[in-house]
Amino acid sequence: MQLSEMHFSEEASRKLSQLKRRTGLTPNILARIGFCISLENPALPDPADYEGTGYINIKRHVLTGYYDPLFVALMKERCHQDGQPEEEWATQFKAHMNRGVLLLHKKLKSLDDLWLILPPAMRKSEAVADE
């Protein structure tokens, strides 16, 4: 997948800035979480919804970090499930990153809300481990 830098849309850039203020987390971490939320959504994101470039651009090695192979594998699997050709992988990656930020923004009002984003089974097992 050829993508050296992620250009977030204007709206996603604004939402990332707001999320950073709310949580103290960096935009690359927030975008990673959002990406996973977007992949969980069965609807295919429309890349046209995320055209244009906002003020947040993140180099791919910063965005995905050590986990780049995992993010690429997740994207490839999702594209296969959606019937997307290989030529669309980078476009879909951008669409999922942007949509994920917007979805995360709706769910995350503070750092404490991260707990609520976890699947219920994980929240239960963590609660048991704390006891």
Return the string of H and E elements. EHHEHHHHH
Major beta sheet summary: 2 strands, antiparallel
The CATH class turns out to be: Mainly Alpha
- Residues in β-strands, percent: under 5%
State the secondary-structure class.
mainly alpha
Radius of gyration: 15 Å
In CATH, the architecture is: Orthogonal Bundle
Task: Give the count of helical stretches.
Answer: 7
Kindly report how far apart the N and C termini lie.
44 Å
What is the residue-mean pLDDT, rounded to a whole number? Answer: 89
* Strand line-up of the largest beta sheet: 1-2
Which percent bin holds the helix content? 55-70%
- Under CATH, the topology can be stated as Arc Repressor Mutant
Number of domains: 1
Q: CATH H level: which superfamily?
A: DNA sulphur modification protein DndE
Walkthrough of the structure:
This protein has helices spanning 10-23, 27-40, 60-63, 68-82, 89-107, 114-117, 120-130; strands at 5-7, 57-59. The chain is mainly alpha-helical. It has one domain (5-130): DNA sulphur modification protein DndE (Arc Repressor Mutant, Orthogonal Bundle). Strands 1-2 form a two-stranded antiparallel ribbon. It is globular. The chain starts with a strand and ends with a helix.
